[in-house]
Design brief:
362 residues; 5-stranded parallel β-sheet; elongated; Rossmann fold; 58% helix
Length: 362
């Protein structure tokens, strides 16, 4: 038996009783002067009782269970930190309003009756809004007492920031797979937050009729499973959603602005859109380019020539980190590992490219 059905029965009984009482009173008033065309008191009571039963059967869920479910769904979407900050702000605002209610009540009528009530509304709103805007600072301040007080937190502020930091994950970075290796090294401070709509998009890709997209989606599921098993960094899945927005990238940007946290992605378009809206972005491709080996002209390295280059006589090889090495006159060394000398290093938007010549030509 569902909760809605139980409340419908309770509401039907309650509204029936109210209708009978109301109908009896109206019937008594209508039959003060008896008339042949007027309903009797019993007829009034029965009619209003039936109408009350119908109203209670239809409207009770909209007055009881439906608002409770809507409130419950809203509270599930809001993080615990936001709820706690809003509660503290409400208590602070009500405290200030109570302190000011006595002097405000001493004002001449009608201000003495109206201003205390207005003060409660205004200071409650200001308290909640202020504490919600500074919820991250409040969380860091309260968390500092677990590490020896505010003094130690100011000394080791960067460590506290790292532990309390939240990083939003994009679908592209989960599918990419490198995030699991990065998280395993411990270079990502804080916890990884994955919204439910990102998981839904990942599942949609995994169920795609296109074999390539389906393979990428399933790979993302496996990477996510690996991340949840890693003890180095916590991974949280949240049901927080953004109402009125359908695109996943737009939802991530809005959510990052609300939570004041960065987005971890390798999507170029999302990177640019987020930066234009003032959201911090952690790009895996930029990280990969930053940690590649730095070589200067004149240095030597061993490289295996695996294919021909675009120009005549060129050979192409790749370093362990994926950096392309274009070897002048390297075509004759195909499928061989040779010693080359770096002649030029070119940094492009796609990454780093190295030009070299065989060491035997020096």
């Amino acid at each position: 038996m569902s909760t809605d059905f139980v409340f419908r029965l309770i509401g039907m009984v309650a509204f029936t009783v109210i209708g009978v009482v109301w109908g009896t009173q109206l019937g008594g008033m209508a039959n003060v002067n008896l008339s042949p065309n007027v309903f009797t008191t019993d007829q009034y009571a029965i009619t209003f009782g039936l109408v009350g039963a119908l109203v209670g059967l239809i409207l009770t869920p909209y007055l009881t269970t439906r608002p409770v479910r809507a409130l419950r769904g809203f509270l599930l979407k809001v993080s615990a930190q936001t709820l706690f900050s809003g509660l503290i702000g409400l208590i602070s605002g009500l405290t200030i309003a109570v302190l000011l209610s006595f002097p405000l009540s001493r004002l001449p009528s009608p201000f003495g009756e109206v201003f205390p009530f207005i003060g409660v509304l205004v200071f409650s709103y200001l308290g909640v809004a202020t504490f919600l805007m500074r919820q991250n600072d409040l969380a860091m301040f309260l968390g500092s007492f677990n590490k020896g007080g505010p003094v130690s937190a100011s000394v080791d502020q960067s460590a506290g920031w790292a532990e309390s930091r939240t990083i939003l994950l994009d679908t592209s970075v989960i599918i990419d797979g490198r995030i699991a290796d990065i998280a395993r090294t411990g270079f990502l401070p804080g916890s990884l937050l994955i919204p439910r709509f990102v998981l839904n998009e990942l599942q949609y890709i995994a169920d795609s009729p296109d074999s390539l997209r389906r393979q990428r989606g399933r790979r993302g599921m496996e990477v996510l499973s690996q991340l949840q098993k890693e003890p180095v960094i916590p991974v949280r899945i949240t049901d927080i959603d953004v109402e009125g927005v359908r695109d996943v990238d737009d939802k991530l940007v809005i959510l990052a602005r609300q939570l004041r946290c960065p987005i971890l992605t390798n999507d170029y378009n999302l990177n640019r859109v987020a930066e234009l809206q003032g959201v911090n972005v952690l790009n895996v491709n930029e990280l990969a380019n930053a940690v590649k080996s730095v070589l200067l002209p004149g240095e030597a390295l061993a490289i295996r020539v695996i294919q021909e280059g675009k120009e005549s006589g060129q050979g192409v090889g790749y370093m362990d980190d994926g950096t392309m090495v274009v070897i002048e006159n390297g075509r004759e060394y195909l499928s061989q590992e040779i010693l080359v000398t770096v002649t030029k290093v070119l940094q492009t938007a796609a990454g780093r490219m190295i030009f070299a010549r065989p060491d035997s030509e020096r």
